[in-house]
Design brief:
Strand 6 and strand 7 form a beta hairpin. The chain is mainly β and 174 residues long. The strands form 4 sheets. A 4-stranded antiparallel beta sheet has the order 1-2-3-4, with no helix packed on it. The chain contains no helices and 15 strands.
Length: 174
């Protein structure tokens, strides 16, 4: 059934669910909410709940890796969830008030902006370790990876273009 239709017997995800993801095969769905209790609800393809994850805080952003191996949820830290086990397999401190996350085109890195720290953090999704930071960005609003593979970070009145290999700012900014 449709989990969003009232009275349909849909899933009992948190009322504050703000993002949903599907594995590439479509055999599982992940619903991410802003409360710490049941912050991630996992269902099978028929929307039967198969797991609920409580995190250390409510989520502020989330994304799934391009290959569907990981769900990265920002909840005070970057919580890396394996879609094979549906468990948190790593937590990475990415700075104060993480607010957005994007995945590299090759699926090997996650890029996280932290509004409170004014920085961008790169996480290697194989080792689950920080492999770089860019701290000269000021208050950051969001991050995306372009079709060209470059990382774009929006901040107050500026859009930064960064090299994904070393997080260096390309060209002029401002």
């Amino acid at each position: 059934g449709d989990p969003f239709t009232q009275g349909s017997g849909g899933i009992s995800a948190a009322a504050d669910t703000f993002q949903a993801f599907s594995t590439p095969s479509g055999n599982k769905f992940y619903f991410v909410g802003r409360s710490s209790a049941n912050a991630v609800v996992v269902t099978d393809a028929q929307f039967n709940v198969i797991n609920r994850l409580t995190l250390n805080a409510g989520a502020t952003a989330a994304t799934m890796s391009t290959d569907g191996r990981y769900l990265i949820v920002l909840a005070n830290t970057a919580q890396i969830i394996s879609t094979a086990s549906d468990q948190v397999i790593g937590q990475v401190d990415v700075g104060s008030a993480p607010n957005d996350v994007a995945i590299s085109r090759d699926g090997q890195r996650a890029f996280v902006t932290s509004q409170g720290s004014g920085r961008l953090t790169a996480i290697d999704l194989n080792s689950l370790q920080i492999i770089g930071t860019q701290q000269a960005l000021g208050p950051v609003n969001g991050v995306t990876v372009g079709p060209n593979g470059l990382v774009y970070v929006s901040a107050v009145n500026v859009l930064y273009e960064l090299d994904p290999r070393d997080l260096s700012i390309r060209g002029g900014a401002g």
